[in-house]
Every structure is written in C-alpha cells, then in structure tokens.
Amino acid sequence: MKVLFVSNDPTIFDADSATRARMRTYAAVIGELHIVSAAGLAAREAHEENLHLYPVHSWKLFRIGALEKRAHALILERGVEVVSAQDPFEQGLAALRATRGTNAKLHIQVHTDFLSPWFVRSGNWRSPRVRMPLLNRYRRELADQVLPEANGIRTVSERVKNSLIERYGSHIPEPSVIPVAVDLTVPEPARLPMHPAFTFALITVGRLEPEKRVEDILAALALVVPHYPMVGLFVVGEGSERGKLERMARHLGIADKVVFLGNRPDAHGLMANAQAFIQASAYEGYSRTLIEAALAKVPIITTDVGVVGEVFKGYEDVLSVPVADPTALSLAIVGFIEDMAVRQELPRRAEATARAHLAAQGNLAERIRDDLARMLRNV
User: Suppose 143 and one of 88, 199, 275, 340 were both cysteines; which one would form an S-S bond, judging by CB atoms 3.0 to 4.6 Å apart?
Assistant: First the structure.
C-alpha cells in the first residue's frame, strides 16, 4: 500500500527523534510511506528503505497551498492510494485539496477534542480567564468542511469519536479509535531540585499553552498554601504562556512555591519523585502524559479530559475534577495531603489500569495499516 501523510511535525526530519522512529515502524508495515510536513529551513528531504520525507518551507500564510501542491505532485508521481492528514484543520484542508482530480482516498486523523466547548471558551466565574486562540474558531469551520469529505477517520479516544458522531452523524464514515503510542519503559526516577520553600511537591508536565490552563493550578495552589505551607509546584515545559504564568505566581504571592524547570528530557523520571502529578487541561484528545504519570506510579489529579472516564476512573484510579475549577483542584490537592492511604492506593490502581489498557491495544502500527486498508476496501 502506498500512503502519504500530511503532517505538521518538524521532528520527523531529526533522524534520532522518537517521531522518526515511529514513522519507520509505520513504513515497515504499510509498505511505502511518504510524509510531507512543514519544517524549518534546515530540514532536508530524506529517504530510507520504505520511508520518504519531504519538508515544505513556507510562511504560515501560504502553508496550506504549499502542502497541497507538494502532496498532489507526490500522489501523481508515486501512485499514492491514501492521503492521511494528521488533523482536520490546515493539514486536513491541504490533503483534501491534494486528492482532488486523483484516485487517492482521503483519511483524516483527529488527535484533539476540538468539539469540546473549551476549545474556544476562555473561562468561567470560578476560574481565571485564559485567552484561547481565535484560530480555534476558524479550525472548527475547517473541520466542518473537511470531515464530511473524508473516506475514513481515525480518532484517539471514544470521547472524540462520540463527539464527531454527535455533530456529523451519517455525514461522515464511522470513525475508528486507535490511541497514540506510549512507551511502556519507565525511566529511572530523576531527582527534583531541592527547594527550601516546600517539601510536598506537585508536578505538571506539558506545553505552556492556553489549553493546558496552568493558571488554574496556580490559583488552586494559592488557595492551599496558606493552610499547607509545605506544598509547592514544579512546572516542566515551555510555551507562549510562561511569562504570563511567572507574573501570575508573583501576583498571587506564591512565586517562592513555583519552580519553572523549562523543557526537561527526564520529565517522565521527575514525575516519580513528586508527591502528586497535576493536570488542568481544558481539553485533550488522549493525554499521553496521564498514561506516563500512571506508569511512574505517582498520584494523579486531573481535569475530566481525554481518556479520563474511558481508561481511568475518577476516585478509583485518579482524582478527577471539572475543567476551569481551581477550588476543586485545591480540594483534590488537600485530599492527597491529608489522606496517605488514598495517595498510596490510587497510583497502584492507575498503574495497573494503564498497563492493562496498553496491553489491549496490540500492535498500533499494524492497526493503523489495517484501518487504512479497510477504508480502501470499503470505498
């Protein structure tokens, strides 16, 4: 089978990256895999045995057209049978346009819960307001154009699949559910920096972008610290919100309780030495970080997003709270501080649940291949 991915992940051009390794695995089972992706000027075309990579160098304003043009040429040159876009937004529109006038079939991957109300919502009376990108409203409109034209759709969770069926009904093919890959190997625990201002360490890991709502974690911490001064937070990750978050911590009077560590290659190992992992995301398609936290055997506090409810059960595996509710987050933190038995029992259950979930997924590369082949047969 000859397949073309339309991507927006420049790390595939790094020969040593985890993404490149995953693409090699996909190519080995698919047969012939071509990938076009937006990338920096340093990225170069690369060809391996079954894997062929083509960088697209373009300003954002012209990126959809550039991806479309390169993908269309490859469909004709290589006899591509399936074009799979990694999202139903910019990449999806480029893939849709690229397949027009060809025999290639359109497949769309949906990795994020873009139909969550929080995809465009900034906050409520209980929470800080977080400015969501205006682009998100445009992306919903793109998805409304692209998904009804797809011959096949893959989602990463039942939550996302159900949201698509509710919105589009019979206007789209029934989506398949194939989660993202998570490495079962748990790295050695990494030591958190010593910090004299606190001894009960919370940790959050992820991109510092609006949808992660780290503001809610800071607001929750400000509620907890006056009563439990031993509590503090390590923030692992970088992003556009970092400056705002640092200013917010100072404004709330908890700057000495929050440590920004930036991007860390040992983030997974750092989790194991924290007293609790905390996530306040507005929405997630899957949330690989929750699985990694469970494998690291750290107690988890999370908003009700991604695979929460589908894989992890609230108050059985994790403490789950509503989105944009710092008070609920603060109560969950206090629950872990005051109840040692819960802090010991929930991680054991979450780890067992995560391992059972991953074991049930089988070979993801083969499932993706079979999903594409099934789509071709059905069309």
Answer: 88
